[in-house]
Amino acid sequence: MAEDLVIRGGTIVDGSGASGYVADLAISGGLITAIGPDLPPGREELDATGRLVTPGFVDIHTHYDGQAVWDSHLAPSAIHGVTTAVMGNCGVGFAPVHPGEEMKLIELMEGVEDIPAPVLSQGLNFTWESFSEYMAVLDGKPRDIDICALVPHAAVRVYVMGERALALEPANQGDIAAMRSIVAEAVKAGAFGFSTSRTISHKTLKGDSTPTLRAQEDELTGIALGLKEAGAGFLEVVSDFNLPDAATEFAMLRRVAEACGRPMVFSLTARHDRTEVWKELLALSNKAAADGVRIRPVFPPRPIGILMGLLGSQNPFSGAPSYQAIAHLPVPERIVAMRDPETRARILADDRITGSNFPLITRLSFERMFPFGDPPDYVPHRETSVAAQAAREGRSAEEVAYDMLLANDGQGFLFCPLTNYADFTLDACEELLRHRNTIVGLSDGGAHVGFISDGSFPTFLLSYWGKQRGLPIEELIRRQTSDTAHAAGLPDRGTLKVGMRADINIIDYDRLALDRPGMLYDLPAGGRRLMQRARGYDATIVAGEVTYRHGEATGALPGKLVRCTA
Q1: What count of other Cβ atoms lies within 10 Å of the Cβ of residue 231?
Q2: What is the pTM of this model?
């Protein structure tokens, strides 16, 4: 019998890190059935001559917890070669939840991940209470990629402790036992683990800290033992690593990992204020790995950067009262108002910090604010910054930034690196790429819809680090296929081998490039979201079905909720 699909003559980069080779690849029943020369004809064939044939990408850090309920197309990840996404990171999500307390979780997700409350309120039906019931809802919707769910600490803590959790009170032994039971039950039902946040940057729009901020070691250990009881899953942690210092915090987390015997991953970026801490944490995690303790840092392959513009939710003047008075206007009308000399003078004279919903963003230095350009420039030269241009022109940085916002009919953005660009290079990212214990990730796909567009990380990894910087393509593919699949606990995908799941990308590597982000208005309640497309993906295949051709959805929806088994 003919195979369902045969991919002809592509260069197989199998995800293991081994050198590529030219061969055909056959698929039947959603699995790879043969790889070799001159395979028999299939019912459908794709010519991949001159193309890379790779495993589908596995993104270990996303936030599709809401979008996966209302949307079958999980863009932007799906249009950047991702075929499996792990969501529920950073300790935020929508289950478990007591009826009537849904807004507590919505408000937290709105502040932490910049997904507007009206979008979530309209898009989520909250027909669930337990995490197992939430997974059942996810299970009932077809999608263009597979999803895996982590149990979010904030939701569990609020469910068990109520207002005491929101007040950041310590958990008692009864609370810990209840949380452990909930997590163990969820993992036994198929959740991929447990996530928590220990960073002061995670707040509601009202300024309230995430309920998990001050969780003590006994609470984290108790919950982690739920994973040990279930015999599956991993822990995901985001922390500032500054209370009282990085080594002390890491040592505590290492003890938690040792107690439960389950893998742990943590977010690692090169901060601009404590520029050497990432090196210390890298060394500590490498030492843990050498000692047999499975703790791995997850890092981004470029700066995590804010996109400020009139199209998005943030710009340097978002907190200025005179700007807020016109912020509701459509962009063309807002531009007319901003060009009025009197309005311009008022906005430039206003206090733009105090009234901002995101004061940390509004305070970003103009020395680290750059015109984004088209094609987008993620590695801008220092002399192109707003501050440098203002110095050359003898104007204030505020004036220069204001004029940049108005350029190109308000369609452009200012790029503001938050991390990984302390010395105006990507040297930190390059160093992290050279360590086998690190994991490439932190795309935050599905989140920060109004001012961050990092769901394109997979494409950037190949187009920048491969094409422009010359790192081996085989290693870059391994980084976001077999490596991330193994870290997440997905043994059936991530490599192109007979018997493995047929999640595949066919890539025109010469053409691979990122487009400039734009704004879509397709979320529930008319919400907006940044969307960045790519060129060079000839096809993306999920479970043997072609879901995208040249960046356009085919209508096939073979993706499902994956339930953890290891």
Answers
A1: 13
A2: 0.96
